[in-house]
Specification:
This protein is mostly helical. The protein is elongated, with a radius of gyration of 16 Å. The longest helix has about 30 residues. It is about 80% helix and about 0% strand.
Length: about 160
């Protein structure tokens, strides 16, 4: 954990948490009305579980981002690429909430979450080239999105 710029890491954590917070505005209103009316699979977690899980994941994502960002030096193409992949997956993360909860379109959200999974995987690979710990910090996120992909697909299937 040496050579980590803690200012960049705090900024990265705040940025990731902010994306989650902004996405929650779309989610919150749909949870109580639209989402509660959907048929869900037996493995659907209780609603109260999502906020602490996502908050923890955004913090881990931010720490990973901060570690990689700390290694950025002028003209460092590998780090720059990893940061771009990370930002792209973060945008896809926010887009999923808009598609699923905002547009109430589980099929479109399902297609998009598959793309999100692939980009998270690419972010892990990109981070691994720069820092092993940073890449490992993204594994719980990939695991949760794997579960969320199955859940999203199941909700779409049950309500088609």
């Amino acid at each position: 954990m040496k050579n980590i710029n803690w200012t960049k890491t705090v900024i990265a954590v705040v940025a990731c948490l902010s994306v989650g917070y902004l996405s929650s505005f779309i989610t919150r209103s749909a949870i109580t009305n639209w989402y509660s009316t959907l048929e869900k699979p037996f493995f659907n977690p209780p609603n109260w579980l999502f906020a602490p899980v996502w908050s923890s994941l955004y913090i881990l994502m931010g720490i990973a981002l901060g570690i990689v960002w700390s290694k950025y030096q002028k003209n460092n193409a590998e780090v720059k690429n990893a940061l771009q992949v990370f930002v792209f997956q973060l945008l896809l993360n926010a887009l999923w909430s808009l598609l699923f909860f905002g547009l109430k379109n589980p099929l479109l959200a399902f297609i998009e979450i598959i793309l999100l999974w692939l980009v998270i995987y690419e972010a892990i690979k990109s981070f691994r080239k720069i820092d092993g710990l940073a890449s490992k910090l993204l594994i719980p996120y990939l695991a949760w999105v794997s579960f969320a992909t199955i859940l999203n697909g199941s909700i779409w299937y049950l309500n088609r």
